[in-house]
Specification:
extended, 2 domains, about 85% helix, 6 helices
Length: about 170
């Protein structure tokens, strides 16, 4: 019976974590339909998540596009297929590398800053102050960040794709 318990505990812990994430997502989505909304906070988060991430996204994708073009050219030169390098770079950046790289860069940069910001707010009791002021912390802190990230990510992916293709063109 002990081997089953050692397998069951991690499985139950994982299921509990999935349940907590589902409840969190459900609460966040449920706040979309009910006022008050905080458009200023939403625009600030769009600026932080979108605009301030452009240098990281741009540098990552331009060098990846250049490296991709170089490798495709080196492989295609053996078969006299240099003419298809631009098409392969464009397809590779738009379908695969662009979205993955932008997602990784945003996950690394934005989520760490959001986690640090909310942890600092928790330590300095700013979240308790929001509750005291009858402001729902979930609605004021979480919803603008989730909504801003959801709306900004496709734009960042498009910009990253264009910059990556330009990096391939330069090489």
């Amino acid at each position: 019976m002990k081997p089953l318990a050692s397998i069951g505990r991690p499985v139950l812990a994982a299921l509990a974590a999935v349940g907590r994430m589902a409840i969190f997502a459900g609460e966040t989505v449920s706040h979309l339909a009910r006022p008050p909304w905080y458009p200023r906070e939403f625009l600030i988060q769009m600026l932080h998540i979108g605009y301030f991430s452009l240098p990281v996204v741009g540098l990552t994708t331009i060098f990846t596009g250049g490296a991709l073009a170089l490798q495709i050219y080196a492989g295609g030169a053996r078969f006299s297929a240099e003419a298809v390098v631009p098409q392969i770079v464009a397809i590779g950046m738009v379908r695969e590398l662009g979205p993955v790289l932008v997602g990784l860069m945003i996950a690394a940069r934005v989520t760490s800053s959001i986690a640090a910001e909310i942890a600092t707010m928790k330590v300095t009791e700013q979240i308790d102050a929001l509750v005291t002021l009858s402001t729902n912390p979930m609605k004021y802190l979480t919803l603008p960040r989730v909504l801003a990230a959801t709306l900004v990510m496709p734009v960042l992916v498009g910009v990253g794709d264009v910059i990556g293709i330009m990096g391939g063109y330069i090489v």
